[in-house]
Fold this sequence. Notes:
This protein has strands at residues 2-6, 9-11, 17-24, 32-38, 45-50, 57-59, 67-72, 77-82, 91-101, 103-108, 112-116. By secondary structure, it is mostly beta strands. The strands form 2 sheets. Strands 2, 4, 5, 6, 9, 10 and 11 form a 7-stranded mixed beta sheet that branches. It has a 4-stranded antiparallel beta sheet with strand order 1-3-8-7, with no helix packed on it.
Amino acid sequence: xxxxxxxxxxxxxxxxxxxxxxxxxxxxxxxxxxxxxxxxxxxxxxxxxxxxxxxxxxxxxxxxxxxxxxxxxxxxxxxxxxxxxxxxxxxxxxxxxxxxxxxxxxxxxxxxxxxxxx
Length: 118
């Protein structure tokens, strides 16, 4: 099982980045997907959620209206389009896959750094 994030980096305030998560080793379309982030000295925070079929999405209040989560089950990928980035969006972003069916199946990516700074 692998979740591999890409697309992070350094961007100026007000800029945009698109994170991607490539999944392999499991049936991607069975799993709900999430993006989390963790800033230095802070707890890991749920940023966005998308249901296994893509019909339901939710966002943290802090990113609502600026971030968009999406997935392509044919390509086993998930994305997070981040617009109007702020310095407080600086964090390591993690891709997460979860399925609850009798027991919890959960996988994590290794994380990718996003830095918003001028």
